[in-house]
Every structure is written in C-alpha cells, then in structure tokens.
Specification:
- The complex is a heteropentamer of chains A (about 525), B (about 525), C (about 100), D (about 425) and E (about 130).
- Chain B has about 525 residues and is mainly α.
- Chain B is built from 20 helices and 3 strands.
- In chain B, β1 (about 380-385) and β2 (about 385) form a beta hairpin.
- Chain C is elongated, with a radius of gyration of 16 Å.
- Chain C has one domain (about 1-85): Helix Hairpins, CATH 1.10.287.
- Chain D has about 425 residues and is mainly α.
- Chain D has 2 domains: about 10-320, no CATH class; about 320-395.
- Chain D has 15 helices and 2 strands.
- In chain D, a hairpin with a 2-residue loop joins β1 (about 110-115) and β2 (about 120-125).
- Chain E has a two-stranded antiparallel sheet.
- Chain E has a single domain (about 1-125), classed as NADH:ubiquinone/plastoquinone oxidoreductase, chain 3 (Methane Monooxygenase Hydroxylase, Chain G, domain 1, Up-down Bundle), CATH 1.20.58.1610.
- Chain E is mainly α and about 130 residues long.
- Chain E starts with a helix and ends in a 7-residue tail after the last helix.
- Classes of the chains: A mainly alpha (about 525), B mainly alpha (about 525), C mainly alpha (about 100), D mainly alpha (about 425), E mainly alpha (about 130).
- The interface between C and E is small, with 10 and 10 residues.
- Chain A: Keywords: Membrane, Oxidoreductase, Transmembrane, Transmembrane helix.
- Chain A: One of its GO terms (molecular function) is NADH dehydrogenase (quinone) (non-electrogenic) activity.
- Chain A: It is found in: Endomembrane system; Membrane.
- Chain A: Its main location: membrane.
Chain lengths: ~525, ~525, ~100, ~425, ~130
C-alpha cells in the first residue's frame, strides 16, 4: 500500500474544488491556484518517479481499497514503466497547458482586437482542467480494469465541456462528435469488461489476476474486439479517426494538447496493456488486419495532412499518422517495436504538444487557423518562428529530436519482428517508411508557408513571444531535444514493463533475447 | 354454513401501508372539514409526516431484522426483503415528490371548472395554492404503489394496480397551465390505463381457470405439477404481461407515456416517472419470478423481444423529440427497457437471482431519484405561459443559469450512464447481471443474453446522443433574447434538487452505499 | 357446459377490445372498457364453478368495486374534458402530438 | 320432512318440483298478479274516494268492480300512437322491459309453507334462491332501464327529464332499501325468503328492527314511485314524465301495470321480510294449525291488503314532496342512519351472542352511536341552513330597519315634524294655501 | 340451475303477455293520422328539436349515478358480511358465532367508516345537494 498515487489523484481534485469555489471575479487567482496545483503535482510525480525501481516488480506504488465489493470492484492503482512515463507526460503537460491557455477563457482577441471566442467562465475552465488531470493520472494508474474503464469514460466529460464551451466556431459539433464516438467505443468496452468478469469467473477486476483467465479462443476474440474497438476509436485509427481532426481543430489549443497528447494515448496504452496481455491469442490472430489498419492510418494521415489548409487540422492528421506508427509498434510484438511504441507515446505528446501550442500562439495573434493567412512570421517574430520550426521538425522525426528515436525503433522492431513468423511484418515496416517522406512534405511545406515568404499584412503586427509563452514552449523543446539525444532514462523505465507484457503474450523468446536500446 | 374463519393479519408488518392509507383517509377528512385557508397547512405536514413515518416503520423492520419470510395477511401481501427495499425507495421518492408538489402554481384550483370561466376565477380567488385534494390523492397513489409490488396474489395486485392508477389518472388532469393538454393527457392515460388493466384482469381470469387459484405461489405449484402447455395459461400470462408492461411503459405498449408525461403537472410526472416505474417493475419481477418460476422457458424469449424493442424505440424516438418532458418520457421508456434486461436476467440459480435482483433494485433506486431531480429542474424553467417545454427555449440556459443547467446536465449524464454518476452503475449492474445469467449452466439463452446486452449498449449510445444534445443546447448555444425565466425555487424544490444531486453524485462515487442495501434486500429474494 | 360461458366471455371481451380500438367517442370507448371488465367477471365466475372454489366469485366482487371506482374517475375526467371543449371525440383530443 | 305438512320450507325444498307443478305455480302466480292489478286499481280508487267522501267507481259491475277491466278494454281500443321522432326499437321495448322484471320480482315471495298442490308436496312459493332478496333488488333495478329507455327513446324533453328523475330517485332509494335489509340478514343469516320467514317464528323483524322497517317503508314509496314520492310522473311539473309519449294505448297499460306490480312487490317484500310473511299473527298463532296447509295464504293476503291499504292511505293524506327534498331525504338521512343502525345492530348482536367480548362490544356500540350522532350533528345541513337563514333574515331586517326605521312597524311620525320642534318648523310661504 | 326454471317459466309468461300487448296494440285501435298528434308533446308549443342519438343528460344525474354505483357496491359487500356475521345455532341449540365475530364487526366498522369518510367529503362538497 503506497499512498502516492491516491495523493497524486486527490491533489488536482481538491485544487479543482478550490478553484470552483473561489468567489466571483477572482479569475486571476483561479489561474494562479491552478498553476500552483499542477506544479505541485508535477513535483510530487517527480519525487515518486525517483523512487521507481525499473528492475523491481512490475507494478509499484500499488494501493488497493475496496470500492464496490458488491461488484468485486477495487480502487486498485499501481504503475509499471509505461504507465509511469505516461503519467509523467500528463503532469508535465498540464502546467504547460495552464500557462498556455492563460487567456483562453478570457475571450481570445487577435492583435487587431477582434474577438475569436467570447469571454467565458475562467474558473470552470481551470477546474475542468484539474479534474481532467486527476482522471489522466487515474486512467494510467488504474490496475483495476473497472476503475480504468470508469476513468476512461469519465475523462470524456471534462474534455467535452472544454471543447464545447471554449472551442472555436464549430465547437459544439466537434464536441458532440468526440463524445459520441468515444462513448460508443466505451460502451462496447464495457460489455467486454463485464464479459471478462463473468466469463473469467475470477470475481475480480484486478488486471494482474485477470491475465490468462480467458482461455476460450472464441471468447478471447469477442472480448478483444470489444476492447480493441474502444481503443481504436480513442487512439484514432483509420477508419474511426474522423472525430479527431474536428475535435482538435475546434478545441482551444491547450485542450487540444491534452486531447491529442494524453487522452489519445489511453487508446494505445490500452492496446499495449490490455488487448495484448489479456487476450494474447486473439491479439495474434488479429494482428494482420490491425497492422493493415495501422499502415492505412500512417499513410492516409500523412497524405490527408498534406492537403490541409487549417493548421490545427493538419497537426491532427499528422497525429493520426503517428498513432498508426504506435499501433504498428504495439502489434509488432517485438520488444524493440513495443518499447519504441511506448516511447513514441511520450515523445509524440511532447512534439505534438509543442506544435499545437506554437500553432495556437500563431492563431491567437492572427485569428485564423488557415495556413494561407500567414507568411513571413520569421521576420516579425523570430522566437515564435524558431519554436514552431523545432516543434515541426520534431513532428517529422528529424534525427536528434525525440520522435526520431521512437519512430526508428518501431520501424526496425517491426521489420525484424518474428512474433508472427519471420519477416511477416517487414512489408509493413517498409511501407511505413514511406510515410517519413510524406511527413517531411507536410511539415516542411507548412513551416515554409507560415514562416517564410512575404510577410502578410496582418502578420506585421505580430508581437513576438512574451515571457509566459516562452515558458510554455521552452520546456517542451528542451524535452524534445533532450530525449532526442538521451532517451535512455525513459527506455530504462519502459523496457522492463514491455518485457512483462511480451512475456504474457508468449512471443518467442528469441526476439526478447535480442535486446537493444535502438541507439 | 358460516364457516368463514376470522383471518389473521400481521399489523406490524403491514404498518407502513396502513400509515399511508390512513393518512390518505384523514386527508380526505381534512378536505371535507378544514376551512380552505387552513387545508394546505394541514395537508403538507400530514402527508410528509405519514410518508416519513412509513419510511421509519420500514427502517424499523429492516433494522430489527424482522424481514418476514412468509406472506402476511393470509398470503395476500408479501413483505419480503425486496419489497421492503422497494417500499423504502418509493417512500423516499414520494416524499421528495411531495416537496415538489408543495410548490405553488402547479395545480389548478378547481379542476371541474371550465378554464377561464367565472367559476375558476372564483376558485382561484379563494384558493390557497391550487387543488388541495392533490395530497390525499398522492397518498392513495403511493399506497397503491407500495401494495403493487408486495402483492402476493394476483387479485391483490389488480386492486393495488387500480388504487395506484386511479388517483394518478386524476392528478394528471390538474395542471394549472395548459389545461387542455393536461385534461387530454388525463383522458388518454385513463382510457389506455383502463384498457390495459382490463387485459391484466382477463389474464388473471385465464390463469385462475388454469391453476384454480390466483395466489402466485399457488400458480407456480400448479405449473410445476402440470407441465403441459395449456392455452389458457399462455393466454393468461400474455395478457397479464400486457397489463404489466403497459404500466412500465415498455414498447409496444408505451404510447401513453410521452403524452401523459407531457400533459401532467410536472411534479406528478416526476412521481409517475419514479414511483410508478419502481412499483411496476417490482410487480413485474414478482409475477415473473414468483408466479412464473416454473415457466421461464416460455416467457423469457418474449421479454427478450420486448426489452430489445423498448430500448431501441425509446432511444430512437427520443431523438426526434422537441419537448423536454416528452424527451424525458422516451428516456424513461428506454430505461424501462434496460430494467427489463435485468428482469430477463433473473434466471437460474438463487445466486443469479440475487445478483439480478440486486441490480434491478439498485437501478430503480438511483434512476428514480435522478428522475425526480430532473423534473424538478424542469419545473423551474418557465415561460410566461407556464413551463418552457420546448427544447429550443432551453438554448443557452448554461449562460443564464449556470448552476441549474449544470445540475440538469449532470442528471442527463447520469441518465446516459456516464461513469462516476449513479446511472452508470445502474446500467452496469443490469448488464453484468444479464451477461452473468448467460453463463448459467443449462441456459439456452446464453448467447441471446449477450445479444441483448449489445442491443442495450447500442441503445445507450443512441440515447447518449439526445442527452448530449440537450447539454449542447444549454451550454454551447447562445441564449435567446427572450429566453425563459428561471423561477426562484422554493425551499422544497431546492431540497429536491439538492437531494437528487447528492444521491446521484454520492452513489456515483461510492455506489456501495446503496448497492450494499440492495444486496441485503436481494439476498433474501422474493417469498416464493 | 362452462365452455359456452367462456366463449361468451371471450366474445364480450373481444367486442369490448375492438370497441376501444375503433370507436371514437370517449364515453363509448369507456363503456367498452367496462364491457371488458364484465367479460372478465363472467370468466371468473365460470372458472370458479369449473375449478370448484369460491375465489373466482370473490374476485368478481372486487372487480365490481374497481369497475365502480373506475367509472367514477373516468366519467369525472371525461365530463371535465367535455365541458372544456364541448366534444367527447377522442379524435378531437389531439393536442398531444409532436 | 316433506311428510310433515307444518314443516317450514327451507332452501333445500326448492328445485324439486316436477315441471308441470312449476308451470302450474307460475300460471297461478301470473294470474294472481293480473287479477291483483285489476282488483288493486279498483280498490285504490274506491278507498281513496271513500277517504275523500266520494263514491269512486260504481258503474261498471257491482260496486264498480269491473272498472279496471273496462279501463283496460278502453286502452286496447285507443289509437296506438307512434310519434315521429322516437327511437322505434327502444320505444317499443321499454314497456316490456318495465313489466317483465316486475312480474319476476314477485316470484320469490312465499305465500305459504308446504302445501299439497294437486297431490304434490310443495312450498307455495314459485321459487326460492340462495340470493332471493338480491334477485328481487336486481329485478327492481332492471325495471329502471325500462323507465330510462322509455324517457330517452321518446325524444321529448319532458319524457327525458321524467325518465332521468325517475332513475335517480329509484336508484337513490334502492340504496337505502338495500341497506335496510342488512339488519335482517344479520339476524336471519340468509338471503332466502323462505328461511327469513322461518327466522321470524318468534318475533317479526318489524318489531325487532323498527328503524329498519321504518326506513324500508319510506323506501317502499320511493322505490315504487308512489305519492308522496311520485315525482317521475309529476303531472304538475312533467305532464306525466317518462310516459308522456305513450298516449293511452296498451303500451301505456303495460307501464301502468309495471308500476302497480312494483307496488305489489314492495308490499309483498314488506310482508315477507318484516311482517312475518305467511305466519299467523299473535293470537291466532296460538292455534296449532294456523300455520299449516292453505291457511297461511289467508294470513298473507290479510297482511298484504292491509299494507297496500296503508300505501293508499298515505296517498290520500300526503302531498308530493319537492325533488330536492326527496333526494336529500334519501341521501342525507336514510343512508347514514341506516349505516349507523346496521353497526349498532351488529354490535349488539355481538354483545348478546358473543362470549367474552361483551365490554368491547358495548364500547363499540356506544362508539358507533356517538359517532353516528356526531356525524349527524355536524352534517345536519338542513338545520345549519335554517340557522343561517335565520341569521341572514335577522341581519336583513336589521339592515332594512337601519335604513328605514319605520319599515314594518307602526307608523312613526318623522322626527322633523314641525310640531316636535317648534323652533325649526318650516316656513310656509304665504299665499300657497 | 333447476332453481331458475320457474323464473324462466314466469318470464316466458310475462314476456309473452307484454310482447303480445305491444304487438297487438296497433291493430286494436283506430288509425286517424294527424301531424300534430305525432309530434313530441310540449304543451302546445313547437317541439324542441332533439339531437339525433338522444339529448344530453344533465350532469347532476351523472353524479347521482356515480354515487349510486359506489354505495351499491358497498351494499354488495355488506350482504355477504351480514350473512356470515349472523350467528347460528349449534348442535346443543345455543346461538353462537362460528366465524367472524368481533373481527367481522371491527372490519365492517372500518369499512363503513372509510365509506363514510368519502360520503362526508361528497356531502361537504355539496355533491348531495340538489338545486
């Protein structure tokens, strides 16, 4: 029993309540409190993470409380390596998002004073953000599948309101689409969760105890399908990806970062942990179709991204492409690919986060998300342009930046995966490599159109980044570059837990034996 | 010749019933003798106290561990664990509804007067906040609701059904605003209700012809000893089923629900949507479980179809609604379908029975209270002509009244079954029970149960759409310039909303609080 | 012997049910419902004779009470609506549609 | 048992007759009733005339005995009108519906105990049922259909109103009448008329249950629509009521017969249920043979005719009441009094017969009486209204007086008369006089 | 069933007589057609046109009818009670209560009180007043 995780989850909730209960007119105070709370969580997480022993048992900082004994549900939390890094990703992003959306609810004005979004309740926004933080931590930390499900679904609601109330012009459409897609997937997963409980007969939802309880292959396939569809919707995999561009484009920049950076990771995280480990046979049986879907996502996302005129939609489509990589890595079932996928989740969070935020700052200045409305930002706001460029390059996985490591690991791992027979996935790996080229096209083209060329008239009024905005982007860029050169700390944490996963999936040991850090 | 022995009656066990009926009778006397200006101030405490007293009596029975294991009153009423739980739920719900009813302005002063006539004006002038007959009528209805699920023979059930329904027919027609609508609702409810109870009764007759008795255990015994498929029996049970399914508003017998919910005064709608549903589901359980225990291979496929149809019809038709109360009515239909899934699951071993029963009881409790809360919110959003029923009038409510809209949104999320609300656990419990029953050894409907759950899931997803649509309307649309006024809620209404919210949140966070009680109640099962 | 009564009761019930479905005047519909209840009574009494206990007859008594109560409530409702709109046709009651 | 002539018949003795005896008895009863009507009409007219110092019928036959026959023939020879607007089927059916149940209602009245009828031992009573009294009440209720249908099918305001009034009156009094029997059943323990007669071996119920009897007598008038409760016809108000459109043909004759039969039934029931039926009255009953053979028919007929005469006597003496008085008597007096009385009877019976519960029974009895009184006092709206009227009257008078002090009193000279106040007297201009 | 045969016989007699009378009436009397004679009788004024399907009943009668039903049903319950409540004579000749006894009394008291409550309500609400 370790109190760490419950404390981590409780702090933001308390913060949210405090923020919500602040008296009217104390908007500024609300922001400050939120920032403080999120920083506190960050510090606490750091301290906790320092105590994580990568070589120790799989789940650490475990805590279990009886929650609903009638259903056999426990409030069970604990983290393995993958979960830890994803929690870390979340708690790092939250303060950044707080800073980034400092004025989002105040009514976003362009440089020339036109209002993009009207003034809305600041307190609500930030308390929703803190609630969301709790749920993000909870969803990664849950070792009880029921608890996982609860957070998985409940997470939608604050995000729904953040998009719906604080987003762009099409926000309500986007919010509803987002909610219904996710909800539908979630409900299918609910059936599977119940099925797991009922069919498994072990009268518990605790993940470690459920591994291997489903032996019947047909049942495995059904339940796998239930889980996988939910996760595929969440980590938008073609063809159920359509909600993401809308949601990401309409969400305020900060919410978009959390949406794409963290929420969608729940899907891939779930695939890695639950789909593979609970239903190894089904996972293997379904690998080929899933890999095909992943490849389609990768290529489709990239191609469609090229055609986008809206920056945020473009970034969303790049994400779809990247999620294709992650799914590919997960289902390659080799340790390199799976570790790469796990690492990719983190790196993508940083990279896309930075890109969204930088784009958000641009949009906040110009009032338009369309690439065609920009040009020559480089000359007017060099700092902003610089950050935008670095973030963009991270998005195309430039060597030396963090994404490259993970993308490379996924491709190598997939190519060499023997889990499904030697060379079965090599074609997939090769096709996915094509997407790297496409990525260069969409990112560089956007960067070029926005930053270079003749300076558009409205752009001339742009101010460069202020201190707050620098504080938003600088840590992300630092992390991108840092992990690009030195991913070992992350991999050290991730690898053992991926090993656990693969052991439970019973992939041939030959691939496990061939260890490598990729670098 | 005079060989009728004096029956024995367990007054202690039946005390909650007697208190409610007694208070209703006293209420009639108050109507008759108290001067008009005093009536309300007598009625309200009387009604609330009696409901509270009955609840306390239920509690006493539970706490002292005196849950009876044999039917009371010569086998007419069975006050077993589930019945006590249902009683508790109904009493709490009706208590809360009475607080809502107590609010001024929902009821007309003189129902018999032609709207706008001099008679009505006169009645309004000397009235003290509308019809005071409402209180005894509500008490009678509540008494019927208590008796309905506790009836141990079909005759008692029929009488209870009518005792419950007749006051409700009247109450439906007492709305102060939109009188024509209200009266029409009343008439439709009455005609259809009487029609369905005639079916119910004919079904009882057929069953009596088959079994020679109307006592539920007696019927079950007759079934056990006579395995062959008697047409009388089949006819009887289908007719009884029609009557019961009508009361819970299951498709295809749901047509009355939207009309009546829309036309009735909103506090009464709240009472019907919560209390009546709870009572009717309790009765359905008792009939199908106690009376038909030995015949389940026959009724389950039929209920399967009805449950699936109900969920789908409720969810899909709700989407097309533009009236908030009609929408909630269709939502109630869909929820009746979910509950029927639970009824389906009461098959197999005693353990499975208990699991399903627990699920249904829990669902009833949490759904009921959330419903009352939702309707309480509806009463507060008002146009000059009464409640702002049309959905378009609710646009932008989140900006005009963030608290109210937030609470309502929360209730809607609970209806939709979003985790961390009570509704989620209700739905979960029912689905889990259904899937669990599919794994019962020897159940030929295992796969079907899974199929039903999938239908349920699809229906929930569809249903989520229209709940979310209202939230979108409230929060993400701009308010109209002449939007509805938000009435200043009376203390009673505030209390209703607060209690509903607390329960919905509290149970959502810690469902074990109610689940535990439901579990205890369900473990003792119905007296068979 | 009792079969005839049952057939009669079934016929009455069917006539009542059909009447409810096809007649338009609220009072007539209501009368049809009463007819159905009486058909039930007939069935009860017949069965009482057939199965040889008195329960059916007792039930018939209760049904009468209920029918009486229903008459009182029903007529009150119908008369009220009739006074308000000067028509007892079910078709005229069409406000509650969407 | 059937060998002993004196044995009182019980339910068990019925339903054993051969068919021909049944037919014979039915024909006899039919004939008795038909003749009874003829005789009854004559008797009524004659008696009333005597009470009013007139001769009454005296032309047709000896003492005018054939007057009714002549009337009947006249009606048969009248034109059978068939008004334009009537609902033909019901218009024709209504008299039939009225008259047939009226005949049937009499079938449960016992005339005598076991007699030897053409060599067969049989009770002199057409039939007895376990629910005989209910049957009688049911037949009475069916007749109401005739009345309502007659009124309704005539399509005439007078007829409709008359029919409705009649129906409302009859059903109102039927309740009180039905309640008045309950006390009897508490004593007799049966609904069968022959057994009720048997139960009056010791004491007539009219003596034992005086309130019940009084209520029944009142109801009898209401139920049979006789003066003072003959409002359905109400010639003064309704020109004949529901039978307005039945001109004066045989249909009308049927209606008349139906009404007369109701009176007979009411009388017969009074005799059977309250006045000991065919049992000989006290001094005669000392004679052993009084209650055997055909003698009881005599006692029955004497009682019957006396009761009938009473009805006629009332007709001669009392005026018709107003409709609201009629209704409020039925609803506000007879019913509550009846209910209280029933409970009192039951409580007393409980005390008298029950063992150990005496004190409780007494307490309950007292409670019932007090409760009934209290309710009665509280509800005595007639009294209340009288008081209110009185008060209003006084107030109105006061008002009037305050406005106009001289009103209603002796002529009082105005205070400003010149000679009271010498100083202020009016100037009388000169030259005006 | 046999018990009802005599009633049937009498019904046939009475019904035959009644139908015969109604049927014979048109043939025994004269026929003298006159328009006014065949109008509804309204003391000489032009007859009020009556709606097809019968006129409307005043509401007052409806209330009476409803009250009647309620009380008639009460009577239906009183009769079996009265019969069961009546004491009977046992073998030794004593009069005893074999069945309901005090219980029956109390139950009936409660029943009548309940009905009286409704009755009181109707009375106070002027349901029994005829104006």
């Amino acid at each position: 029993m370790s109190p760490w995780l419950p404390i981590l989850m409780a702090v933001p909730v308390v913060g949210a309540i405090v923020v919500a209960l602040l008296p009217k007119g104390s908007d500024k105070l609300a922001k400050q409190v939120t920032l403080l709370v999120s920083l506190l969580v960050l510090v606490l997480t750091g301290v906790m993470a320092a105590g994580f022993n990568p070589g120790g048992e799989r789940f650490q900082f475990r805590a279990e409380y009886n929650w609903i004994p009638s259903f056999g549900v426990k409030f069970g939390v604990g983290v393995d390596g993958v979960a830890l890094v994803l929690i870390a990703l979340s708690v790092v992003l939250v303060p950044i998002v707080v800073l980034a959306s400092w004025h989002d609810a105040d009514g976003v004005k362009t440089a020339d004073g036109t209002l993009i979004t009207p003034k809305r309740s600041v307190k609500t926004y930030f308390s929703l953000l803190l609630v969301l933080e709790t749920m993000m931590i909870g969803v990664f930390a849950a070792t009880d599948i029921f608890l996982f499900y609860v957070f998985f679904e409940a997470m939608l609601i604050p995000m729904y309101f953040m998009i719906g109330s604080y987003g762009g012009a099409q926000r309500s459409y986007a919010a509803v689409k987002f909610l219904l897609y996710s909800l539908f997937g979630g409900l299918l997963m609910l059936v599977a969760v119940i099925g797991l409980y009922v069919v498994g007969g072990s009268k518990t939802f605790m993940f470690p105890e459920l591994i291997g309880v489903i032996q019947d292959p047909a049942m495995q396939k059904w339940l796998f399908a239930g889980f996988f569809i939910a996760f595929a919707i969440k980590a938008p995999l073609w063809p159920v990806h359509t909600w993401l561009p809308d949601a990401a484009a309409q969400a305020p920049a900060g919410a978009a970062v959390l949406l794409v950076g963290v929420l969608d990771k729940v899907g891939t995280f779930g695939m890695l942990r639950f789909c593979l480990e609970l239903f190894p046979d089904a996972a293997k049986a379904f690998t080929m179709p899933i890999v095909v879907l992943a490849i389609i996502s990768i290529v489709y996302g990239a191609i469609v991204a090229i055609g986008q005129t809206d920056m945020k939609r473009l970034i969303a489509y790049t994400s779809i492409s990247h999620f294709g990589f992650i799914v590919l890595g997960v289902f390659a079932m080799s340790d390199i690919a799976s570790s790469g996928a796990a690492l990719y989740m983190v790196n993508h969070g940083f990279a896309t986060g930075a890109l969204f935020l930088a784009a958000g700052f641009l949009i906040a200045r110009r009032g338009s998300p369309f690439i065609g409305d920009y040009g020559g930002v480089q000359k007017v706001a060099p700092l902003l342009a610089g950050f935008f460029l670095v973030a963009g390059l991270a998005g195309l996985s430039l060597p030396g930046l963090s994404s490259f490591v993970s993308e490379f690991m996924v491709m190598i791992g997939t190519y060499s995966s023997t889990a499904h027979g030697s060379g079965a996935l090599s074609v997939a790996a090769i096709i996915s490599a094509v997407a790297v080229v496409l990525a260069a096209v969409y990112i560089l083209w956007m960067v070029q159109r926005v930053l270079n060329g003749p300076t558009a008239e409205p752009v001339k009024a742009f101010k460069d980044l202020n201190a707050r905005e620098v504080w938003v982007l600088a840590p992300l860029v630092a992390l991108i570059i840092g992990f690009g050169f030195f991913p070992k700390p992350l991999l050290d944490v991730i690898n053992p837990s991926v090993q656990h996963t693969l052991t439970n999936v019973h992939v041939p040991t030959s691939t496990i034996a061939e260890k490598g850090t990729g670098q | 010749m005079n060989s009728i022995p004096a029956p024995t009656i367990e007054y202690g066990t039946l005390a909650p019933l007697l208190v409610v009926f007694g208070a209703a009778v006293i209420g009639v006397l108050v109507e008759a003798f108290a001067p008009r200006y005093l009536r309300k101030s007598i009625h309200v405490p009387l009604t609330l106290l009696s409901l509270f007293g009955a609840f306390a009596l239920v509690l006493v029975q539970v706490l002292r561990g005196q849950v009876s294991t044999v039917a009371s009153a010569m086998g007419a009423v069975a006050v077993d664990g589930p019945a006590l739980f249902i009683w508790g739920v109904i009493l709490v719900l009706s208590f809360v509804c009475v607080l809502l009813i107590n609010d001024e302005g929902h009821f007309v002063a003189s129902a018999a007067a032609v709207p706008g006539s001099a008679d009505e004006e006169e009645a309004e002038a000397e009235g003290s906040g509308g019809h005071t007959e409402v209180y005894p009528l509500v008490l009678f209805a509540v008494g019927g609701m208590l008796l309905f699920p506790a009836s141990h023979d079909l005759l008692m059930m029929f009488v209870a059904l009518e005792v419950m329904s007749l006051p409700l027919y009247l109450l439906c027609g007492l709305a102060r605003r939109r009188r024509l609508l209200s009266q029409e609702a009343s008439m439709k409810y009455f005609l259809l209700g009487a029609f369905s109870s005639a079916f119910f009764l004919y079904g009882i007759a057929m069953i009596y012809g088959f079994a020679g008795t109307v006592s539920l255990p007696g019927i079950n015994q007759a079934l056990a000893s006579n395995a062959q498929l008697d047409p009388l029996l089949m006819l009887g049970f289908s007719l009884v089923g029609v009557g019961l399914l009508f009361k819970i508003g299951a498709a295809p017998f749901h047509a009355w629900k939207p009309d009546v919910y829309q036309g009735a005064p909103t506090p009464i709608t709240a009472l019907m949507a919560s209390g009546t549903l709870v009572a009717a589901i309790g009765a359905v359980l008792r009939v199908f479980w106690v009376g038909l225990g030995n015949l389940d291979w026959n009724w389950r496929p039929a209920i399967w179809g009805v449950a699936a149809l109900t969920m789908i019809v409720g969810s899909i038709l709700a989407i097309t609604q533009t009236e908030i109360k009609r929408m909630l009515a269709y939502s109630s239909i869909a929820h009746a379908g979910f509950l029927l899934v639970g009824v389906m699951a009461t098959f197999g071993t005693a353990e499975q029975n208990a699991v399903s029963l627990k699920a249904i009881l829990f669902y009833l409790a949490v759904y009921g209270i959330t419903t009352v809360g939702a309707f309480a919110v509806v009463t507060l959003v008002r146009d000059p002509g009464g409640e702002a029923g049309h959905l378009s009038r609710w646009a932008g409510l989140g900006k005009r009244a963030p608290m109210l809209a937030g609470v309502f949104a929360f209730f809607l999320l609970a209806f939709a079954g979003i985790p961390l609300t009570s509704g989620f656990f209700g739905k979960y419990a029912v689905f889990a029970a259904a899937l669990n029953s599919g794994t019962q050894p020897g159940d030929s409907m295992g796969g079907w149960m899974a199929g039903l759950v999938v239908v349920g899931v699809v229906a929930s997803a569809i249903a989520a759409f229209f709940y979310v649509r209202v939230i979108v309307l409230m929060f993400f649309s701009e308010p109209a310039a002449d939007g509805p006024a938000i009435a200043v809620p009376s203390a009673g209404t505030v209390a209703v909303i607060a209690v509903s919210l607390l329960v919905t949140v509290g149970v959502g966070l810690y469902p074990e609080s109610v689940l535990g009680i439901a579990n205890d109640a369900a473990r003792s099962l119905f007296i068979r | 012997m009792t079969t005839h009564y049952l057939v009669l009761s079934g016929l009455l019930f069917a006539i009542g049910a059909l009447g409810v479905l096809i007649r338009r005047n609220a009072i007539v519909v209501f009368m049809c419902v009463e007819l159905m209840l009486n058909a039930c009574n007939l069935a009860f009494v017949t069965f009482s004779r057939q199965v040889g206990n008195l329960e059916g007859q007792v039930i018939a008594f209760f049904v009468m009470v209920v029918a009486a109560a229903e008459v009182v409530v029903g007529l009150a409702i119908i008369v009220t609506i009739f006074r308000t709109r000067r028509s007892a046709s079910v078709d005229d009651a069409n406000l509650l549609k969407y | 048992m059937t060998l002993v002539l004196a044995a009182d018949p019980t339910l068990a003795d019925f339903g054993k007759d051969p068919l021909w005896i049944t037919i014979v008895k039915a024909v006899m009863l039919f004939a008795f009733l038909m003749l009874g009507i003829l005789f009854g009409v004559w008797f009524e007219r004659k008696l009333i005339s005597r009470m009013q110092h007139r001769y009454g019928p005296n032309r047709a036959g000896k003492f005018g005995l054939l007057q009714s026959v002549a009337d009947g023939l006249k009606m048969g020879l009248k034109e059978d009108l068939f008004p334009n607007t009537v609902d033909k089927v019901l218009y024709l059916l209504a008299p039939v519906i009225m008259v047939v149940p009226a005949f049937l209602a009499f079938s449960i009245v016992p005339f005598a105990p076991m007699v030897n009828l053409f060599g067969v031992q049989t009770p002199l009573q057409l039939v007895d049922l376990p629910v005989a009294v209910l049957f009688m009440l049911a037949m009475g209720a069916v007749s109401v259909y005739g009345v309502v249908l007659a009124g309704w099918s005539s399509r005439s305001p007078y007829a409709l109103l008359g029919g409705l009034r009649s129906a409302a009156q009859v059903v109102s009094y039927e309740i009180a009448m039905g309640l008045s029997f309950v006390a009897i059943f508490v004593f007799a323990g049966t609904l069968s008329t022959s057994e009720i007669v048997k139960a009056q071996e010791q004491t007539w119920f009219a003596v034992l249950l005086i309130p019940s009897f009084l209520i029944y007598v009142i109801c009898m008038f209401g139920e049979a629509a006789r003066i003072p409760f003959d409002l359905p016809e109400g010639e003064g108000e309704l020109v004949g009521g529901f039978q307005t459109e039945y001109s004066s043909s045989l249909k009308f004759a049927l209606i008349m017969m139906g009404e007369y039969l109701h009176t007979f039934t009411a009388t017969g029931i009074a005799v059977t249920l309250f006045l000991g039926g065919w049992r000989a009255p006290f001094p005669i009953s000392l004679w052993e043979g009084a209650n055997t053979g055909y003698w009881p028919v005599l006692w029955f007929l004497i009682k019957f005719i006396l009761t009938f005469s009473f009805i006629i006597w009332v007709r001669a003496s009392l005026p018709r009441v107003r409709y609201d008085q009629l209704m409020s008597l039925g609803w506000k007096v007879l019913i509550p009094v009846n209910l209280a009385w029933i409970l009192l009877v039951a409580a007393v019976r409980n005390v008298v017969v029950g063992e150990g519960d005496t004190m409780l029974g007494v307490g309950l009895g007292v409670l019932i009486v007090i409760g009934a009184l209290a309710i009665w006092m509280r509800f005595d709206t007639v009294n209340q209204r009288r008081k209110e009227d009185k008060k209003a009257e006084i107030e109105a008078e006061f008002e009037e007086l305050s406005n106009d002090p001289t009103a209603g009193g002796f002529p009082v000279p105005p205070l400003d008369l010149p000679h009271y106040h010498g100083v202020q007297h009016k100037e009388i201009p000169s030259g005006t006089n | 069933m046999d018990l009802y045969v005599p009633i049937l016989v009498l019904a046939v007699l009475a019904g035959g007589f009644a139908i015969f009378s109604v049927a014979i009436a048109p043939f025994t009397g004269p026929k003298r057609w006159n328009r006014a004679k065949l109008d509804a009788y309204e003391c000489g004024i032009e007859p009020t046109p009556q709606p097809v399907g019968g006129g409307r009943f005043p509401l007052k009668y409806m209330i009476t009818a409803m009250l009647f039903i309620v009380f008639d049903i009460e009577i239906i319950f009183l009769y079996p009670w009265a019969v069961s409540f009546a004491p009977e004579t046992d073998d030794v000749g004593r009069t005893i209560f074999s069945g309901l006894g005090l219980f029956g009394l109390v139950e009936m008291l409660l029943f009548i009180i309940t009905v009286l409550v409704a009755y009181a309500y109707v009375w106070r609400r002027k349901g029994l007043d005829w104006d």
